Amino acid sequence: xxxxxxxxxWTRLHPLSPVISFGRTVGVVLVILVPRLIxxxxxxxxxxxxxxxxLLGVVAGIVSWLxxxxxxxxxxxxxxxxxxxxQSIRLPLARVQAIDLDRPLLARVVGLAEVRVQVAGSxxxxxxxxxxxxxxxxxxxAQLLALSHxxxxxxxxxxxxxxxxxxxxRLVLSTLLGMPVIALAVLVIAAGVLVIVEGTGAGxxxxxxxxxxxxxxxxxxxxxxxxxxxxxxxxxxRVDGGLLGTRHETVPLHRVQAVRWDEPLLWRPWGWVRLExxxxxxxxxxxxxGDSFPDRAxxxxxxxxxxxxxxxxxLPGADPRAxxxxxxxxxxxxxxxxxxxxxxxxxxxRYVVCSSGFxxxxxxxxxxxxxxxxxxxxxxxxxxLRLSTVHVDxxxxxxxxxxxxxxxxxxxxxxxxxxxxxxxxxxxx
Length: 429
Description:
Blueprint (H helix, E strand, L loop, with lengths): L16 H5 L1 H17 L4 H23 L2 E5 L2 E6 L5 E6 L3 E8 L1 H5 L2 E8 L7 E7 H15 L12 E5 L2 H9 L2 H20 L8 H19 L3 E5 L2 E6 L4 E6 L4 E9 L7 E8 L17 E7 H11 L29 E4 L3 E6 L3 E8 L5 E5 L2 H5 L2 E7 L7 E7 H21 L1
Antiparallel strand pairs: 1-2, 2-3, 4-5, 4-10, 5-6, 7-8, 8-9, 9-10, 11-12, 11-16, 12-13, 14-15, 15-16, 17-18, 18-19
Helix pairs in contact: 2-3, 6-8, 7-8
């Protein structure tokens, strides 16, 4: 087969890329520096240090842009970067797992976007083209997708069919009914009582870090999941969303390690569900942007029917709620008095489902073909009560599945049974 007819000339990123890449650092320094300039505090040393940091960030951004170049040559995406430590990255398109578009707020303002290429076996964030003009980024993504599937470079990206679109009003209300807001409300009430008792506002000061943390968490979730849409496409499940910064991700279904069906306590009267996935080789914090989808939510909040429709696309035939009908023995209440009603298990030829939780009822669905190892754990109290827990280990990093507090004899029999079914499932995959 002949090499695809694609350009091989080296290309630089957009000249404004340093502004986007180091915009946050510059913004933090300016937040500190500007009020002090207005106040005219006269702290020359402080001004010099902060100005030096600002200048260093600008210079580093410019140097990074000057020493970075990329091209598509044959069946590879090639990226060269680094000044002191030169790096030459070769990403074989035949091993591409996903190609995403990321548009942070500042990038959207100037019409830029980032192309992120995930390749099997590569480190997080290595295949990044940050940033390109938005039209060019869309074209490059389509080109890389076509080449990764052995098609002509000019083949357009396949269209997707919307499976789920979040209701933004429901998203805001469900966020306000989440545990962070409730915990914050309790802290505010406690601080109010202290203010009344002490007659001063000193009780509010310890709350400021908590307020900032909760506010950041809520904003990050709303900003990432606003207008979120999950679409079915030939290359996987596409997830688009974002309020200020937008994100376009493609989740290859074969990389899904587990799915979590989440029913928070205050959502249950409304019949709302959250559906999340755990995938292999997730990005680390180094590769993530602040606008990435938290916990890989496919359904941030939706009805049972919404979540079941998306789940049927990701793991056909899986039934998370089947686990709720198989509780452990009643003496397990001694070790899990609150979560006992939600401790469940369901196993068939393709999936194992483990449920747990009290304030947040969670059902974790694991394809048996993805199971990496099984562990049976029995602490001293559980041994006395003749109970045991079987842990199901995966490649994903978000969460684990555990069959908690079953009869010791049942756990002893379940362990080899799951191992055998996992072996058969891998053979059939």
